[in-house]
């Protein structure tokens, strides 16, 4: 997969060299030479994987532009290019929401290393974000195999955990008993029969419902199966 980068730089000689070198290193590069050009691109800024901003530009500076992007809720990695390595500028760059800062002149290898490091970090954060399943007042940490209700950790067996994950993934939909039974027959060969499923449902209700006899989350749909209803705190 080729990563798409946006380079904001008004030095034509530097732009040509960077575009050539970064393209050879497997990146797709789009060029902007003014702050205004980037502001026009803001509605589609999410199509870029990383932004590289020069600090001093004809119509503004990279720090202010970075702040505008962060205020718009965009968390794309941003690297600043600058001729100044003074601490005050580095601090300003990081305070404005930048992720890294590289001083001209720099070696292409160093820039590529920093780009790859930020892309890896962004990918890791994205995976962590996607590894949490939330539905109303319940949150499931898929990496940690933990279920929290109102922020309180539930003590579930592995089968109960698989059951709640299946139901929450399909929240507000009716899951037939056969469908649930097929899903709960795991790769280790642990078979769950119809009676066992009823026991799992009852025990799960005892752990998640304020009134297990009058459930709000795990609802029985007679003649079909079960439904997980989203309940907010």
UniProtKB/TrEMBL annotation:
<dbReference type="Pfam" id="PF00486">
    <property type="entry name" value="Trans_reg_C"/>
</dbReference>
<keyword id="KW-0804">Transcription</keyword>
<dbReference type="Pfam" id="PF00072">
    <property type="entry name" value="Response_reg"/>
</dbReference>
<feature type="modified residue" description="4-aspartylphosphate">
    <location>
        <position position="54"/>
    </location>
</feature>
<dbReference type="GO" id="GO:0005829">
    <property type="term" value="C:cytosol"/>
</dbReference>
<dbReference type="InterPro" id="IPR016032">
    <property type="entry name" value="Sig_transdc_resp-reg_C-effctor"/>
</dbReference>
<protein>
    <recommendedName>
        <fullName>Stage 0 sporulation protein A homolog</fullName>
    </recommendedName>
</protein>
<keyword id="KW-0597">Phosphoprotein</keyword>
<feature type="domain" description="Response regulatory">
    <location>
        <begin position="4"/>
        <end position="119"/>
    </location>
</feature>
<dbReference type="GO" id="GO:0032993">
    <property type="term" value="C:protein-DNA complex"/>
</dbReference>
<keyword id="KW-0238">DNA-binding</keyword>
<keyword id="KW-0805">Transcription regulation</keyword>
<dbReference type="InterPro" id="IPR036388">
    <property type="entry name" value="WH-like_DNA-bd_sf"/>
</dbReference>
<feature type="domain" description="OmpR/PhoB-type">
    <location>
        <begin position="130"/>
        <end position="230"/>
    </location>
</feature>
<dbReference type="InterPro" id="IPR001867">
    <property type="entry name" value="OmpR/PhoB-type_DNA-bd"/>
</dbReference>
<feature type="DNA-binding region" description="OmpR/PhoB-type">
    <location>
        <begin position="130"/>
        <end position="230"/>
    </location>
</feature>
<dbReference type="InterPro" id="IPR039420">
    <property type="entry name" value="WalR-like"/>
</dbReference>
<dbReference type="GO" id="GO:0006355">
    <property type="term" value="P:regulation of DNA-templated transcription"/>
</dbReference>
<dbReference type="InterPro" id="IPR011006">
    <property type="entry name" value="CheY-like_superfamily"/>
</dbReference>
<dbReference type="GO" id="GO:0000156">
    <property type="term" value="F:phosphorelay response regulator activity"/>
</dbReference>
<dbReference type="GO" id="GO:0000976">
    <property type="term" value="F:transcription cis-regulatory region binding"/>
</dbReference>
<dbReference type="InterPro" id="IPR001789">
    <property type="entry name" value="Sig_transdc_resp-reg_receiver"/>
</dbReference>
<comment type="function">
    <text>May play the central regulatory role in sporulation. It may be an element of the effector pathway responsible for the activation of sporulation genes in response to nutritional stress. Spo0A may act in concert with spo0H (a sigma factor) to control the expression of some genes that are critical to the sporulation process.</text>
</comment>
């Amino acid at each position: 997969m080729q990563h798409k980068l946006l380079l904001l730089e008004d030095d034509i000689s530097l732009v040509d060299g960077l575009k050539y070198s970064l393209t050879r290193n497997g990146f797709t590069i789009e060029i902007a030479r003014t702050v205004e050009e980037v502001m026009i691109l803001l509605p589609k800024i999410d199509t870029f994987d990383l932004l590289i901003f020069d600090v001093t530009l004809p119509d503004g500076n990279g720090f202010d532009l970075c702040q505008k992007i962060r205020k718009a809720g965009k968390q794309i990695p941003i690297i600043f290019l600058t001729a100044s390595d003074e601490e005050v500028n580095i601090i300003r760059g990081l305070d404005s929401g930048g992720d890294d800062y590289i001083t001209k002149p720099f070696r292409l290898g160093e820039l590529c290393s920093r780009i790859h490091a930020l892309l890896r970090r962004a990918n890791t954060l994205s995976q962590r974000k996607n590894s949490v399943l939330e539905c109303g007042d319940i949150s499931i940490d898929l990496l940690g195999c933990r279920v929290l209700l109102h922020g309180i950790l539930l003590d579930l067996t592995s089968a109960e955990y698989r059951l709640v994950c299946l139901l929450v993934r399909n929240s507000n939909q009716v899951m037939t008993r056969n469908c649930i039974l097929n899903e709960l027959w795991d790769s280790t060969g642990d078979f769950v029969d119809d009676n066992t499923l009823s026991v799992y449902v009852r025990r799960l209700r005892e752990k998640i419902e304020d009134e297990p006899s009058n459930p709000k989350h795990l609802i029985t749909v007679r003649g079909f199966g079960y439904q997980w209803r989203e309940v907010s705190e």
